């Protein structure tokens, strides 16, 4: 049995759905359903007796303690976070609350529970903390990709809050012996991504013929990974990773933002030859740059490849085509996320959040 935090968000939902599809474990999903969490992401599990959704905050130690006692998970997989860099620049507070203090409270609840287990259960237990490449800062054009020993140099409030959470997890392993692992991953894309992030934002704007806002000169580089590949890597780290270790995960797919947007536009041009918005690339508009915008991220994935045999399966082109298709085939999901209908649904079923 696994306790998954943030399992109603983008990567968490992909992870929970994939894990349930292969019957990897019974899963309890704990999620506060912020604007980024959406129960529709887990709709396919509505009738799955091996999945339980619990509405709640990772900072609620009593709740987490009760879930640990009742369900006796073998692993806690920690996705829950505020995840959007732009939001962290406009309002950093929730990032400190959830990413730093939330992770701290979660760790405390887990530590208390774990210390009460039998010796063999303690050895078997895992705490998997999902983090980001942004903790390493920004690379110059000729720098080698980040590896696990690259010093931390987080630049945005989001990155700093994730770095703090990584350090807490590391300290709980070092001090208390909690069998924790940390993964740091590059930019994900794929189904269920909230359309505030580059790829879904551009797809949905281009379909409507709206301008495509590219920050600065559009030459910032990200290392893109299809979300299913990330989830597969996490499964392998959980099963075979060495406790106390960090594993970098990435797509080995460095692209400038302009390359990403142009590729998306070309896919849409081909799918919609009669669109009045063709060529979609003419919708590209350069806008004011993000404050403190990191120039380049790239991940060295040699460690996870060597130790666990993981490599990404999806190419950038095939992953992007799949992603565009998913957004086209799921207009109800898009509509619910954009209209805030799912927020109303939430209030109706759970009261105000
Ligand atoms: P997301 O914003 O889509 O989902 C976050 C989920 O956490 C939501 O369901 C939200 O409701 C939930 N949540 C937020 N605060 C909570 C709280 N206090 N208690 C319980 N639940 C809470 O994020 P994502 O893109 O799926 O990212 C998941 C994790 O992976 C994050 O930790 C993020 O830092 C990390 N990560 C993301 C990427 C990426 O490209 N998206 C890359 C590397 C690492
Ligand atoms: O690198 C991993 C990180 O990737 C994760 O830890 C974060 O949770 C995730 O949000 C993502 O952060 P980024 O800031 O890289 O992703 P975002 O999609 O917001 O932006 C990708 C790039 O595109 C970045 O250089 C900013 C640029 N951008 C973004 C938006 C939303 C634009 O040019 N225009 C836009 O409108």
Task: Walk me through what this model shows.
By secondary structure, the chain is α/β, with parallel strands linked by helices. The protein is built from 13 helices and 13 strands. It has a seven-stranded parallel beta sheet, sandwiched between helices. Strand 1, helix 1 and strand 2 (27-31) form a beta-alpha-beta unit. The two termini are 27 Å apart. Residues 83-85, 132-134, 186-187, 197-198, 201, 213-215, 220, 222, 257, 290, 297 line the site of 2'deoxy-thymidine-5'-diphospho-alpha-D-glucose (DAU). Residues 83-85, 132-134, 186-187, 197-198, 201, 213-215, 220, 222, 257, 290, 297 line the site of 2'deoxy-thymidine-5'-diphospho-alpha-D-glucose.
Tell me the layout of helices and strands.
Blueprint lengths: L1 E4 L4 H12 L5 E5 L19 E5 L5 H11 L3 E4 L6 H6 L2 H23 L3 H6 L1 E7 L24 H20 L3 E6 L2 E2 L8 H11 L3 E4 L5 E3 L1 E2 H14 L5 E4 L4 E3 H15 L12 E4 L14 H7 L7 H14 L1 H9 L1 H10 L3
Parallel strand pairs: 1-2, 1-4, 2-3, 4-5, 5-6, 6-11, 7-10, 8-13
Antiparallel strand pairs: 9-12
Helix pairs in contact: 1-8, 2-4, 4-6, 7-9, 9-11
The structure holds nicotinamide-adenine-dinucleotide and 2'deoxy-thymidine-5'-diphospho-alpha-D-glucose.
The site of nicotinamide-adenine-dinucleotide (NAD) has 30 residues, from helix 1, helix 4 and strand 5.
């Amino acid at each position: 049995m696994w306790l998954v935090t943030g399992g109603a968000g983008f990567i968490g939902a992909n992870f929970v759905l994939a894990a349930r599809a292969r019957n990897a474990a019974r899963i309890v999903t704990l999620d506060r359903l912020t604007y980024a969490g959406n129960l529709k992401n887990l709709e396919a599990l509505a009738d799955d007796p091996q999945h339980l959704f619990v509405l709640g905050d990772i900072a609620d130690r009593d709740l987490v303690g009760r879930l640990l006692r009742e369900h006796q998970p073998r692993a806690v997989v920690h996705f829950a976070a505020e995840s959007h860099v732009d939001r962290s620049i406009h309002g950093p507070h929730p990032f400190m609350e959830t990413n730093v203090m939330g992770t701290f409270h979660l760790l405390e609840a887990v530590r208390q529970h774990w210390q009460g287990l039998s010796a063999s259960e303690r050895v078997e237990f895992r705490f998997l903390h999902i983090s980001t490449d942004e903790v390493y800062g920004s690379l110059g054009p000729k720098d080698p990709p980040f590896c696990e020993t690259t010093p931390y140099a987080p630049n945005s409030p989001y990155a700093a809050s994730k770095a703090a959470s990584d350090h807490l997890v590391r300290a709980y392993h070092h001090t208390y012996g909690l069998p924790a692992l940390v993964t740091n991953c590059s930019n994900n894309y794929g189904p269920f991504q909230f359309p505030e992030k580059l790829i879904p934002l551009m797809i949905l704007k281009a379909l409507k013929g709206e301008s495509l806002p590219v920050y600065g000169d559009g030459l910032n580089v990200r290392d893109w990974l299809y979300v299913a590949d990330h989830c597969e890597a996490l499964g392998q780290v959980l099963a075979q990773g060495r406790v106390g270790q960090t594993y970098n995960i990435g797509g080995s797919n460095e692209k400038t933002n302009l390359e990403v947007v142009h590729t998306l536009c070309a896919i849409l041009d081909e799918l919609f030859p009669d669109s009045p918005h063709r060529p979609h690339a003419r919708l590209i508009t350069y806008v004011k740059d993000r404050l403190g915008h990191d120039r380049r991220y790239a991940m060295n994935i040699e460690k996870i490849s060597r130790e666990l045999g993981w490599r990404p399966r999806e190419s950038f082109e095939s992953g992007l085509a799949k992603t565009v298709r998913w957004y086209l085939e799921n207009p109800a999901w898009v509509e619910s996320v954009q209209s805030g209908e799912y927020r109303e649904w939430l209030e109706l079923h759970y009261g105000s959040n």
